[in-house]
Write a structure and sequence with these properties.
Layout: H1 2-23, E1 27-32, E2 37-42, H2 60-63, H3 66-82, E3 86-92, E4 110-119, E5 128-135, H4 137-158, H5 168-185, E6 190-197, H6 200-207, H7 209-226, E7 232-237, E8 240-246, H8 250-266, E9 268-271, E10 274-277, E11 280-286, H9 295-310, E12 316-318
Parallel strand pairs: 11-12
Antiparallel strand pairs: 1-2, 1-5, 3-4, 4-5, 6-8, 6-11, 7-8, 9-10
Helix pairs in contact: 6-7, 7-8
């Protein structure tokens, strides 16, 4: 009589345990070491999981792609061979699992965190694991959104929002890296150019700041067209711009500067049916061999640029120790 009661209690406990597991939102999969679905419990949250009970008796390679099945089976073998908990993340599209078509459940790519634990087995039996799956798609998407926003903020900090050129801080950082790269790789001359748009205040006064902004954007586009892809270009503030040209010589730098000057002079922007024209004064200086940053070279180029303004604007001047003191 006592034995019958114990058996009944044990049966009730098993039934209760199976009922509890079946009602759990997350799915529990029981696999053997060959990847055969032995049992499927839980997974009642239909917003996150499909009913996978139809997979019982099938092998992983029968219901999903070979690549995914190989990956998941490797994790099962890792758990049974180490007898340790294995945790990892993977992505899966329910449409790629046979038998899910038309079922209630999520669609599109899902991210899953799997917890795989080995189960004690009798001697001679195939080793088994219990696999608990947690849908982490919302969490993963939230992290991806934060990462994307963080990258955007870092980009905004590096880039002048009006012109799309490097901001002052980023210009100096990249100029230093470019200078260091060139000097480590080869013996090459490095030049800096300072540029300032002429009579820019008059544009703002006569046409308004929107017209001034359009002129700045137009000049930034001119720089992008005239300069090389590896040149470091920045807006230092207001209507002042700077460039670092590595692996160049004075002849090629003068040619580039003249192309910028001429294209700027020829360019027009229109604001309320009025043509707005602008010119630029340019100063050039060479970086000294013993200089480890561009600060002093920029100061020299700046002095040459202001000489260009004093001599009539819309022209190029190269720094001279005898003149620009």
């Amino acid at each position: 009589m006592i034995k019958k009661e114990s058996a009944a209690v044990k049966l009730n406990e098993n039934t209760l345990l199976e009922g509890v597991l079946s009602a759990v939102p997350e799915p529990f999969f029981v696999y053997d070491e060959d990847g055969t679905y032995l049992d499927v419990l839980g997974g009642m949250d239909r917003e996150k999981y499909h009913d996978a009970r139809h997979l019982i008796g099938k092998k992983m390679h029968e219901v999903m792609s070979i690549k995914l099945a190989d990956t998941l089976l490797d994790k099962i073998k890792q758990a049974v061979e180490t007898q340790l908990l294995v945790t990892f993340e993977y992505s899966i599209d329910p449409s790629e699992i046979s038998g899910y078509e038309g079922q209630p459940g999520p669609t599109g790519l899902r991210w899953v965190e799997a917890h795989i634990s080995p189960i004690a087995t009798e001697r001679g039996e195939k080793r088994k694991v219990v696999w608990i799956a947690f849908d982490i798609t919302k969490l993963k998407n939230a992290f991806e959104t934060l990462d994307r926003q963080s990258r955007q903020l870092r980009k905004m900090a590096r880039v002048d929002t009006l012109t799309g050129l490097l901001s002052r801080r980023s210009f100096f950082e990249l100029a230093y890296l470019e200078m260091k790269r060139v000097r480590e790789e080869k013996d090459s001359q490095i030049f800096v150019i300072m540029m300032d748009l002429d009579h820019f205040k008059q544009i703002n006064d006569n046409f308004g700041h929107h017209a001034g902004d359009n002129s700045l954007r137009q000049f930034a586009n001119t720089l992008k067209i005239c300069l090389r892809s590896n040149d470091v270009i920045g807006r230092l503030g207001g209507e002042e711009f700077a460039v670092v040209l590595a692996e160049a010589n004075i002849k090629s730098v003068k040619s580039i500067a003249e192309r910028i000057r001429l294209k700027t002079e020829e360019s027009k922007t229109f604001f309320h049916d009025s043509a707005v024209t602008v010119t630029v004064s340019i100063g050039i200086s060479k970086l000294g061999e013993d200089e480890d940053d561009i600060t002093e070279a920029l100061k020299r180029a700046d002095r040459a640029m202001y000489r260009a303004k004093k001599e009539g604007r819309n022209r190029i001047r190269i720094f001279s120790e005898a003149i620009d003191v």
